[in-house]
Amino acid sequence: MKSRCLSMTVGVWAICTLLGGASASAEELIFSLITKTNENPVFVLMRQAAEAKAKQLGVKLISFAGKYDGDNASQVDAIENSISAGAKVIVIVPNDTTAIVPQIKAARAAGVIVMVADSPLVPVNAADGTWATNNFAAGQLIGQWAKATLGDKAKDARIAMLNADTMMVTNDVARDNGFLTGFGITVPNRKVWGSETDPRIVGHDVTKGSPSGGQTAMENMLQKDPTINVVFTMNEQSASGAAQALKAVGRDKDVFLVSVDGTCAGIEMVRNGTIAATSMQFWLDMATDAMQAAMDKIKTGAVPPVTPGLDYVDSGTKLVTDHPAPGVPSITSEEALKLRGDMCKKAS
Amino acid sequence: MIETNPESRAMTMRMSAAPEPEAAVGSPDQMVASFEIDDTDLVRRLQNFLHSYPTVVSATVLVLSLVTFGLIVGPRFFTPFNFSLILQQVTVISVIGAAQTLVILTAGIDLSVGALMVLCAVVMGVNAVDHGMPQGLAIALAFAVGALGGLVNGLLVTHVKLPPFIATLGTWNVFFALNLWYSGGQTIVAQNITTAAPSLQVFGDSVNFAGMRLTVGTVLMLGLYALLWYILNRTAWGRHIHAIGDDQDAARLAGVRVKRTLVSAYVFAGLICALAGWVLIGRIGSVTPQEGVTANLDSITAVVVGGTSMFGGRGSLFGTLVGALIVGVFRNGLALAGVDALWQGFAIGLLIVVAVAIDQWLRELSA
């Protein structure tokens, strides 16, 4: 028994050494990518794009992720580990835009360039540069589309709001309030979702951003009010579950289901009519542009850019729908797939 | 079995630090007499009864919560359709809960059930849809993965002698990582599965009758419970499972092949997880690697709310189904009543604490 234990220990140690053996040479530049989670396809793709960019820049990429959406503690560890691994640049998608600031300040004080992608810090200038989607604008786009598509019926709309979590995650709140604003509903408090009092809102429920969460929430909403005809979902995973629930009661054809993200699966769902419209974001550009800007800063001392009128670089949003509405600029699902390029080869 | 030998009971009393319920009431001379069981004591008789039928507690809670929400929400809640909806909403967790009950009865715990379920669903979906594998083969492969996952858990517990909590804490992370690697984090959308591999969604098909909508998945889940009930209560293997959970050493001395039975229980649980993965695809239509993150804890919730003891050996399979239903009724009822999602979690938390408190109270009978 003892010898078996010993041999196992030796075996595990050998594997670890092999895995760790591929360490960087002394003069190689190290970039670190820290994402919110490992499981979200967006971050899987972001990591792949960052790997490709690292090759192009001739640097080594190390990557970390939080355990769940909102997991700040893992990202604190990741920043410390990046610094001790000798990273010169950190590109982070922060889980908690306020709580992570002290660690980012410490990293910059240690001479590391910190770039933020997707969720701007509070305050924004705590980072060297920021690349993000204006999530409020993304929500606003689908809100405007829904309103224009409904036309006169918008004033009697029955709207279900499917959010991610009760934790009031920044993006979740911004998308929700953006949608309502685009639809023409007054939002008294933009810091939280659910502050509006418009009678057209049937209610809010949370989905954890997963299909089964979206499905259960949608089923319960329909029980509460069977006349629901507009459904906002904060991401396409929960939209797929909501669509399943609508289909089960034969409402999939006459309910406008809108979402945000523009993942490959999401564009696919727009194409096959599961989702009416979605707001597409360009996260891969966020990560790769941030890496490029960091490289420029190292080489030439160039100051990272910002979009005029904003304090970050707006990576842009495009409305994806196969049913364009007057006055709301959009692209078709085919065009969206083309824009995604190799990223969505599997899905098409 | 309820221990009725007064001598051993007195020993237990002297050894146990838990205060007797009678100790709080009555005079000192009565406390000496409390070593004898007084069958006329109402509390004690109730305890006896509930101890013999652990499902009664949870079934009572279920009925009470149905009535309560019926009164609060009104006709929207109290319809055959809404009840069938709740059944659908708890189907996946009930299947996983059956696997969890099996393991908890052996005085173990399986934290890897949710991750294994999603891994099996992903294996099914990726092979049948992306790789064009024949559907039957992809499904069989997923069951093989489920059995293998269970085997690894079982061997870690019996041969490497890790506590089940630690062993499955490890495999939970391993299975989840494998699932993300195998799927590339990508969702396979429902429509593509319908086109390429419709049999993966077979458990989502439904029949309507008497205003209810029952899915094939729900019917299968009920069938699984009936089968498992028979196995656990009417076969030697089932009795061995109970015996191991109650007292492993005694079971070994009585001639039960403890290691082999334990491994087979974990493998069986793994197979049920694969089945749950298949049912999950039927329920949500798509294959999503992000699913089931909390399924392990949700299944443990169903088991403890259903009155199965976390210490093994005592519990009821149907209690788990009732436990899952209680949670489902709470979620659905609170949502229909317009209660903030935040307080839904609060209510479920209270449920768990109360359920285990009752369980402890009953255990005072048979330490």
TrEMBL record, chain B:
* PANTHER family listed in its UniProt record: ABC TRANSPORTER PERMEASE PROTEIN YPHD-RELATED-RELATED, RIBOSE IMPORT PERMEASE PROTEIN RBSC
Could you read off the lineage of the organism from its UniProt record?
A: Bacteria, Pseudomonadati, Pseudomonadota, Alphaproteobacteria, Hyphomicrobiales
Q: How does the protein associate with the membrane? A: Multi-pass membrane protein
Region Disordered: which residues? 1-25
User: Cross-referenced InterPro entries, in alphabetical order?
Assistant: ABC_transp_permease (IPR001851)
Q: Which domain of life is it from?
A: Bacteria
Q: Which UniProt keywords apply?
A: Cell membrane, Membrane, Transmembrane, Transmembrane helix
Q: Where are the transmembrane segments?
A: 52-73, 85-105, 111-129, 136-156, 214-232, 263-281, 317-335, 341-362
Pfam families, alphabetically?
A: BPD_transp_2
According to UniProt, the name of this protein is Fructose transport system permease protein
Instruction: Give the subcellular location.
Output: Cell membrane
